[in-house]
Each structure stands twice: as C-alpha cells, then as structure tokens.
Write the structure tokens for this entry.
Amino acid sequence: MKLYTRTGDQGMTGVVGGRIRKDAIRVEAYGTVDELNAVIGQAISELDPNVFHDVIRELTEIQLELFDAGADLANVTKNPAYKIAGSMIDRLEVAMDTYEKEIPPIRRFVLPGGSKAAAVLHVARVVARRAERRVVTLAEQESINLEVRKYLNRLSDYLFMIARLANARQGISDIEYVRGGDVFK
C-alpha cells in the first residue's frame, strides 16, 4: 500500500461521512488535537520511566483518547457513535486530585519551564487550550460531541498539574511569575 494517495491534492480531505476543505474549522479542530497528541508523545519521551511510570501510563492512555477525540471531530455522519465520554473526564479529575498531594501549593502564576519534561508538558498544555478554542468555534457552527470540548478543557488542567509534578518529582522548583503578588490563596 502506498502512503500517498493524491486525493488531497485539490485541497479537500476525507472525513467520516464525506469530504471537506482542508482549511475547514472541523479539520483545524481535529488537526490541532493531532498536534497535541504529538506533543504528548514528545513529553513521554522526556519522562524517566523509573520515576514517572504512572504518568507515562496515563499519558499513553490520553494519546489513545485524543485519537478517539479526533475521530469524533472528523465524523459528519448523522447519529454518530461517539467515543469520548464523561468517564474519561472524571478519570482526569481523580488523577489531578491524587497528584496535587505531591506538589507544593501554588501561590503565583507559573511560567513554563523548570525541567525539560515540564517545559514540554507546558507546551502540550497550551496546545490543548488551542485545540479547545478550535473545538469551541466548531461547536458554534456544527454538531459535535460536546464531551470533546469538556475533555480538552480538563486535559489542559491535567497537563498543567503534570508539568508541576514533573518538576516536583525531580526536585526542581516551578518558575514563578514574580512581577505579581500571590494570586492563589
């Protein structure tokens, strides 16, 4: 099987249930989810499996779920069978509640950085926020699985938590925004 098909050479792409322009907001939304998935893969490669086995396992599951989210967003059929569900969001919240016990309380805004793994996780966080914005725009124009929007919102929070956890487990302090006062009390 050849990797290239030439079917997209005219600026159209296939989705579940038809073909649409490659610059459609739907393609932008699931394309940004795909980008997020790639950044999470990069983050996993920066995590020491001896220290972060639990996080690597979760992030790998998240990669599978992001593939499912992309499939949900690429589905334009009537009565689609969606894959992203509220239970996935609940699982992210439970993980955040667990990891919060390992990190110092947050007082100020945190700048991206610290360890290399934390920096990549912060990149993943901002890509998740961008994906969420694209999905919000798409949801205003077309019918989608709204659980994807909620999932991306919670996932960005989770990635922030994991970035802080990456620093904490490596004994590296978060970089605080020092030009402002304490904002979290």
